[in-house]
User: Fold this.
Amino acid sequence: MVASRSFRRGLRDGLVLFVAVGGFGVAYGVLGVQAGLAPWLVVLASALVVSGAAQFAWVGLVGAGAAPVLVATSGLALRHVPMSARLANLVGPRPLGVRLALAWVLVDETFGLTVAAARRGEADLGAYKAGADLLLFCGWVAGTAAGVALGGSVDPTAWGASVFFAVLFVGLAAPLVQGRWDLATAALAVATTFAAQVLPPAWRIAAAAAAAAAVGAVLPDD
Amino acid sequence: MAAITYSCRVVFLARPGRAPAGRLARFLERFPLALFVALATTTLLVPGELNDPVPGYAALGGAIGGGVLTRRWLPGVLAGGVAAYWVARVLLG
Assistant:
């Protein structure tokens, strides 16, 4: 009963992700087809990888060969390691199948919702995340399919798709700022992101976030 | 690509051990906020990411304003950011 209520709350909160991530999926689908990838492969990647950042990097590097794509994917995926540790801590003991499924859609957006839900005292975080994951996954794959169908008839950069996605991350960060030291961590993350511009693009986000969190770890609680 | 991404996602979930403690626990506590700020900063504030940075700044301002007005409600933040972005684009022609 508790699990089903948490699942429904996850669905409710995931609705906004369905729309936002779906829109971004359209942009990815369009760019994938425009890059010359097979439409089925573009959609299959969305279902298997479920990582906007990695998939956009793939589309951007499609002509450069396998090695740059794998290096970029590794750099981008590294940020999921601390997310995995945090999520394992949040959801507690679960059957192996459930944990493997939760890892499948361990993405920034539903991870952010789950962390915020934990702070609100959500009863069953595994069920909550599963509900949010389901809508995000459907939005991402359906959006990709729609983008593939639209093909070359639209220009996603003209609608400012990247800006909308960045605003989504502002929205995910907002509930995590609970006091002045969280604010200090956020300010540090801005600074480390600028400093990380000297690194190769694929490593910037993970390095900036890890550096800010490392300094944030020695800051006191509010 | 799928294998690399999934490996990083499943590493702690496949075989959960003891709950992290001390500095590691605090690092993991702060990591999500740092990550989301870094992701937003990369697009909205870092020079060269957008052809015209002003709508990006407007989107950030609108998102913060929307968050303040709606008590950090995610749809409110999104609506504020998107509205400010389009207003800035229209005003800038």
Remarks:
- Residues 52 and 89 of chain B are 9 Å apart (CA to CA).
- The mean pLDDT of chain B is 86.
- The helical segments of chain B are 2-10, 22-44, 53-69, 74-92.
- Chain B touches chain A through 60 residues (CB under 8 Å).
